[in-house]
Specification:
Layout: H1 3-23, H2 27-43, H3 45-52, H4 58-68, H5 74-85, H6 91-112, H7 116-129, H8 134-139, H9 147-158, H10 164-175, H11 182-196, E1 200-206, H12 212-226, E2 230-236, E3 244-248, E4 251-253, H13 259-269
Parallel strand pairs: 1-2
Antiparallel strand pairs: 1-3, 3-4
C-alpha cells in the first residue's frame, strides 16, 4: 500500500490507537468485529467499489457503513466510518486497511496485558512447526476446504498451548487467507507485532545452527543496515540454498545478489 492509501491508513491508525489503549482486554473484540467488515468487503465487489469511490460523499459512505454494522461496537463503527471517509488508491486497499486495523486491535489486547512478546514467540513457533509440513500448509490454504474447518485444524495444531490472542490471529489467518499462503500471513502478523514493539523482524533460515556470537553479530549488522532494532528469528533447514537465507519484511536478502549479506557472512565466519 502506497501513496494516497498509505497516508489515509496512517491517519486512521493514529486516531484508532488511543481507542485501543483505552479498550484494554476488549480490544480483541473490536478486532474481530473489524474482521467481519473485511469479510463483507471481500464478498462484495460492488460494496468495495461504493465505499472506495472518492466521488461519493464521505458522509453518505459513513451512513452506509452504519447500516452495514448495526450491532457493532460503536468504536468499531466509528473507525469503519473513518476509513470510508478517506481516499484510497484502489478498492482493495480499503479492505486491506480494515484487516490491518483488525489485527492491530487483537494484538493491542496482548500489549495491554503485557503478553505481546509471548504472542510473538507463539506465532514464530507455529511458523517453524509448519516448515516441514507441506500437506498441512496446503490444507490451511485450500479454498475447497471451508474456512471454519481450516481454523479448527489450527486449533488442533495449537492444542490449547497458545494464548487466546495468538489463537485468534492464527485462526483468522487460516479462515480468511485473502490470497496469501498461511505461513506468509503469520509472517505478516509477526511484522505487525514487531511494529507495535518498534522492531523489525528478520527471519533467518540457515542450514546449520548459529552460535550466540553469530546471532548477536548478525542482529547488529541488520540493525545498522535497516536503522532500527531487529528481532532475529532463526529457522533450521538443511536444504536451504547457500546455507543462509534472510528475509526482512517482504525483502529477501540474497547473498548472490546483495554484497551486504556477502559481507555479513564473511564477518560471521570471522
Amino acid at each position: 500500500m502506497r501513496g494516497t492509501s498509505r497516508a489515509s491508513l496512517v491517519a486512521v491508525e493514529e486516531r484508532f490507537e488511543p481507542v485501543l489503549a483505552a479498550a484494554g482486554s476488549q480490544a480483541s473484540v473490536l478486532g474481530e468485529q473489524l474482521f467481519a467488515l473485511v469479510d463483507a468487503l471481500d464478498r462484495s465487489g460492488s460494496l468495495r467499489r461504493v465505499l472506495g469511490d472518492p466521488s461519493i460523499e464521505g458522509d453518505a459512505k459513513a451512513g452506509l457503513v452504519g447500516r452495514l454494522l448495526p450491532t457493532a461496537d460503536p468504536r468499531v463503527t466509528a473507525v469503519a466510518q473513518d476509513l470510508v471517509r478517506q481516499r484510497w488508491s484502489a478498492d482493495g486497499d480499503l479492505a486491506e486497511a480494515a484487516e490491518r486495523l483488525g489485527f492491530h486491535a487483537v494484538l493491542a489486547r496482548a500489549e495491554n496485558e503485557g503478553d505481546l512478546a509471548r504472542v510473538e514467540e507463539e506465532i514464530f513457533r507455529l511458523s517453524r512447526a509448519l516448515v516441514g509440513q507441506r500437506e498441512v500448509r496446503q490444507t490451511l490454504f485450500d479454498p475447497a476446504i471451508p474456512g471454519e474447518a481450516r481454523a479448527e485444524l489450527v486449533d488442533k495444531i495449537l492444542a490449547g498451548r497458545a494464548t487466546e490472542v495468538a489463537s485468534i490471529v492464527a485462526r483468522r489467518a487460516a479462515a480468511a487467507p485473502r490470497g496469501r499462503r498461511y505461513v506468509a500471513t503469520l509472517g505478516h502478523i509477526a511484522d505487525l507485532i514487531a511494529e507495535r514493539r518498534d522492531r523489525q523482524v528478520a527471519t533467518v533460515t540457515t542450514a546449520t545452527p548459529l552460535s550466540e556470537a553469530q546471532r548477536a553479530r548478525l542482529t547488529e549488522i541488520l540493525g545498522q543496515a535497516y536503522a532500527r532494532d531487529i528481532q532475529l528469528n532463526v529457522i533450521l533447514d538443511p536444504d536451504v540454498i547457500g546455507g543462509l537465507r534472510i528475509q526482512v519484511g517482504p525483502q529477501v536478502v540474497d547473498s548472490t545478489v546483495l554484497s551486504r549479506l556477502a559481507d555479513a557472512r564473511r564477518r560471521l565466519a570471522g
